[in-house]
């Protein structure tokens, strides 16, 4: 490896490997030797990069003759999922999703993986995703009869790996929804629950924006019409399509249930508020009785009933107590108290 290549972020190069036409690993490649290998042999090259800098990406562009616009997208990251054709290569962006546990609940952390696909090479660039592709490479190398299909099969294996990572994320969000439902119906109203419902809805929408483009992209790859995706490899992308479609349906189901949970939560709040209003009204009615009686006997008139009666005062107190108790019993029967 030349001094120039050594200076280019070696830690960003996860793997740089050549494979024979028979699908077997032949050697590790320095970046500087890639263009010569592509000119003189029937091997194909699989390179994995993790958050590379501009210098390394420009070197990769030089070796593979990649398009400037695709390199700029891979350098800046934060791209929307897409599939684009540049001359004799494909540029694909697929978002990744990982679950993180925080004090306020589950959160979906999004990253992205960029793919440069040619007839004899595939380059992957990961941004933000902490999950390496080592297991995919190991599995592919253990199946040379499939790997001999070339870079297109590697693309399928990587897309399938990324899409399958959506399943545990959806399962965790569904579990979080079940906990929220239990809290709504079995615990006292809490303002925090409302915030968690809206936060969970945001996480679902974010995941929806990740999954939906994967359906469209895998569908296009199934119907691809030139040898960038060989005819024998295209059916494999149907597996990715089916998985993405299933995840999308799971997200829609959880989102519908979440909407129902939110409606139920708001209804429970209304019921609770109505019960509070009735309770206050009942106590107000009970308190109104002694207030009325005391107000009457507080008026300044000479000729009022029982003013000179010896038992007038205890009689009025008893009447007040009996009236209040009667109202209390009636409200209790009506479940207002």
What does this protein look like?
This protein has 337 residues and is an alpha+beta fold. The protein folds into two domains: 3-269, CorA soluble domain-like (Beta Polymerase, domain 2, 2-Layer Sandwich), CATH 3.30.460.20; 273-333, Up-down Bundle (Methane Monooxygenase Hydroxylase, Chain G, domain 1), CATH 1.20.58. Helices cover 58% and strands 17% of the residues. The chain is built from eleven helices and seven strands. It has a seven-stranded mixed sheet, with helices on both faces. Helix 9 (191-222) runs antiparallel to helix 10 (236-297). The chain is rod-shaped.
Give Rg in angstroms.
35 Å
Number of separate domains: 2
CATH architecture of the largest domain, by name, is 2-Layer Sandwich
* CATH domain class name of the largest domain: Alpha Beta
Number of strands: 7
Query: What structural class should be given to the helix and strand makeup?
Result: alpha+beta
Oligomerization state of this entry?
Answer: single chain
The ordered string of helix (H) and strand (E) elements is HEEHEHHEEEEHHHHHHH
How many helices does DSSP assign? 11
Strand residues, percent: 15-25%
CATH level-3 fold name of the largest domain: Beta Polymerase, domain 2
What is the overall pLDDT average? 84
Shape: rod-shaped
**Beginning-to-end CA distance, first to last residue:** 84 Å
> How is the biggest beta sheet arranged?
7 strands, mixed
Helical residue percent? 55-70%
The neighbouring-strand order within the major sheet is: 2-1-3-7-6-5-4
Low-confidence stretches: 1-7
CATH fourth-tier homologous superfamily of the largest domain? CorA soluble domain-like
């Amino acid at each position: 490896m030349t001094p120039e290549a050594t200076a280019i972020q070696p830690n960003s190069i996860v793997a740089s490997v050549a494979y024979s036409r028979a699908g077997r690993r032949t050697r590790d490649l320095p970046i500087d030797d890639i263009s010569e290998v592509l000119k003189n042999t029937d091997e194909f090259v699989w390179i994995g990069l993790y958050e590379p800098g501009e210098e390394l990406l420009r070197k990769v562009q030089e070796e593979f003759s990649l398009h400037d616009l695709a390199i700029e997208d891979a350098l800046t990251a934060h791209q929307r999922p897409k599939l684009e054709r540049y001359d004799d290569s494909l540029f694909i962006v697929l978002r990744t999703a990982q679950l993180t546990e925080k004090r306020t609940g589950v959160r979906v952390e999004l990253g992205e993986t960029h793919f440069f696909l040619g007839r004899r090479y595939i380059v992957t660039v990961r941004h933000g995703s902490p999950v390496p592709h080592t297991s995919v490479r190991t599995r592919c190398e253990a199946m040379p009869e499939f790997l001999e299909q070339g870079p297109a099969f590697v693309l399928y294996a990587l897309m399938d790996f990324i899409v399958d990572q959506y399943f545990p994320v959806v399962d965790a969000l569904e579990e979080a929804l079940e906990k929220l439902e239990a809290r709504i119906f079995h615990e006292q109203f809490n303002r925090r629950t409302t915030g968690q419902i809206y936060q969970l809805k945001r996480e679902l929408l974010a995941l929806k924006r990740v999954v939906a483009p994967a359906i469209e992209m895998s569908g296009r790859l199934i119907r691809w019409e030139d040898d960038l995706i060989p005819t024998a490899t295209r059916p494999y992308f149907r597996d990715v399509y089916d998985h993405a479609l299933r995840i999308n349906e799971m997200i829609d189901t959880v989102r519908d249930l979440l909407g129902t949970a939110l409606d139920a939560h708001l209804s429970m709040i209304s019921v609770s508020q109505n019960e509070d209003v009735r309770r206050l009204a009942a106590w107000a009615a009970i308190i109104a009785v002694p207030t009325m009686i005391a107000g009457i006997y507080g008026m300044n008139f000479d000729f009022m009933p029982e003013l000179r009666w010896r038992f007038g005062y205890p009689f009025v107190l008893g009447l007040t107590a009996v009236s209040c108790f009667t109202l209390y019993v009636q409200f209790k029967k009506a479940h207002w108290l």
